[in-house]
Amino acid sequence: MANRFPPSLRPTPHFISLKREVFGRVTQCRIGHCFTGEYYSQFVPSEGIDCPCGEQFQTREHLLRECPQYEDQRHVLEAVSRDISLPEILGTKKGIAALAEFLESSGAFTKTGKPRQPPKLPSVEDEPELEDSDDDDG
Ligand SMILES: [Zn+2]
């Protein structure tokens, strides 16, 4: 079954899953269940609550509006809401579209806070050995 598609079509499922990961992060970010110190402080006491940029308490607002780690990507949010108003970014269609773009390019709100590498494409070596029952009959 898995071998039916020509190799040129293989990247498609990975591409879709990468997008799905971004939209998962959009949802997590909107409802506040995301990788931030703010969330950890309430639910994951073993995790640190500070931001790699040096901010003592990493909040969702900090990451979206101020964190220097994401300065290069922030213009996407500012284009929709000049002062990056959270209700606008998290609660309007345009805001959410911008948020998705921001999250995809910046890697913000991932566990590491860095952009994800696209999954490695499968190679021939990863293919399971096919059972070759015809030859076993001898
Ligand atoms: Zn920061």
Q: Kindly report how far apart the N and C termini lie.
A: 26 Å
Uncertain regions spanning at least 5 consecutive residues: none
What's the count of strands? Answer: 0
- Overall structural class, as computed from helix and strand content, comes to mainly alpha
SSE string, helices as H and strands as E: HHHHHHH
Mean pLDDT: 86
| Envelope shape | globular
Q: Can you tell me the number of structural domains?
A: 1
Main sheet summary: none
Rg calc: 21 Å
The helical percent reads: 40-55%
Query: Bound compounds, please?
Result: zinc ion
Number of helices: 7
Short description:
The chain is an all-alpha fold and 138 residues long. The protein contains seven helices and no strands. Helix 1 packs across helix 6.
How would you explain this protein's 3D organization?
Residues 124-138 have a biased composition (Acidic residues). Residues 108-138 are annotated as: Disordered. This protein is an all-alpha fold and 138 residues long. The chain has one domain (17-115). The chain contains seven helices and no strands. The chain has helices at 11-31, 37-43, 60-66, 75-80, 86-91, 93-106, 133-136. The longest helix has 21 residues, at 11-31. The chain is globular and about 65 Å long. The mean pLDDT is 86. It binds zinc ion. Zinc ion (ZN) binds at residues 51, 53, 55, 62, 67, 69.
